[in-house]
Amino acid sequence: MLDKQSPIGIIDSGIGGYSVARRMQRLLPHEDFLYLGDGANTPYGNHSAPEILSMTRRLLRFMEVRRVKALVIACNTISCVAEQLSGALECPVLNVLHSGAQAAARLELEQVGVISTCFTAQSGCYGERIRRLSPNTQVISRGCPDLAELIERYIDQPGGEVLIDRAIQESLAGLEEVRHLLLACTHYPLAEDRFRRLYPDRVWIDPAEELAACVKHFLAENNLLNPSPGLGHMEICTTGSARDYARKAEKAGLRQITCVRHLAV
Ligand code: DGL
User: Fold this and answer.
1) pLDDT tens digit string along 168-197?
2) Quick one: which of 106, 100, 108 has its CA closest to 141?
3) Is the CB of 76 under 6 A from ligand 1?
4) First and final C-alpha spacing in the chain
5) Which of 46, 187, 188, 206 to mutate to test the pocket of ligand 1 (most atoms within 8 A of CB)?
6) Residues 259/37/32/9 CA torsion (nearest 10 deg)
7) In 10 A of CB 252, how many CB atoms?
């Protein structure tokens, strides 16, 4: 039996899921959240499917023990292999793929760029889903080998913008004609100001808003919304550095953080 007052779990390979968590806090202010970022193993995006699955199973076991009422796979890379994880948890599991594809498809564009980790790009997941929803949209996928890791490490470091800007420019080389781009890696919206400053004429699509709305709808439909009147809390766990995660959570705009702790999964 799922408990309405249990937290909603959010997993990501690292801090990227903060871009989803902050949207969820805004849209679902009475919910408690339990965030787990695999700081010790990030980035996932240059790994193989079996490696990503094995790292993710450890995250799921933690969420199972903590009895979350729903799990949100914020990470696009993990979401690409999510079907192979079905049945691993008793609670419902939602992932970002459908929301990301929906956010892009709704615009009924002639062309959309999808920038992501190499794994997500090679999986073809977004291309297939966007075309299913909007058959006339041409999807151009681009895998960016280092961008997520640079954002994870340097987003709040002095001089980090220079490294991040360079990686963004390298990632977008050759996509000059593509006006709409889907940020199909949770880390990228954390550097959205950099994207906007470098390319003010582009339209950046962040799947987080759509995903948060989808989670809210799901909870409401299944009578799982937390009835508590007060503001919910955010607990953050990481296999990496708790201090680092706490600092970056604040920068990302998360609030009501009750604790940030290191976890040996
Ligand atoms: N943030 C993750 C995503 O959404 C991947 C980053 C990584 O670990 O490579 O795909």
Assistant:
1) 999 999 999 999 999 999 999 999 999 999
2) 100
3) yes
4) 26
5) 187
6) -150
7) 18
Residue 265 pLDDT greater than 70, yes or no: no
Tokens standing for residue 31: 């919910």
Quote the CA–CA distance of 114 and 255 in Å, as a whole number. 30
The neighbouring-strand residues paired with 212 are none
Q: Tell me which residue has its CA closest to atom 7 in ligand 1.
A: 43
Ligand 1 pocket test target in 20, 75, 116, 238 with most atoms within 8 Å of CB:
75
**45 CA closest ligand 1 atom index:** 9
Beta carbons of 69 and 2 less than 8 angstroms apart = yes
Any atom of ligand 1 within 6 Å of the Cβ of 120: yes
Average pLDDT over residues 120-136: 97
Query: What pTM was estimated for this model as a whole?
Result: 0.97
Of the candidates 118, 122, 113, 74, which has an alpha carbon nearest to the alpha carbon of residue 97?
A: 74
Counting from 1 in the atom list of ligand 1, the atom nearest the Cα of 17 is 1
Backbone torsion region of residue 133, taken as left when φ is above 0, otherwise alpha when ψ lies between -120 and 50, otherwise beta? alpha
Q: Which atom of ligand 1 is the closest one to the Cα of 42?
A: 8
- Tokens found for residue 196: 């906007």
Q: Per residue in 106-120, is it b (16+ CB within 10 Å) or e — as a string? A: eeebeebbbbbbbbb
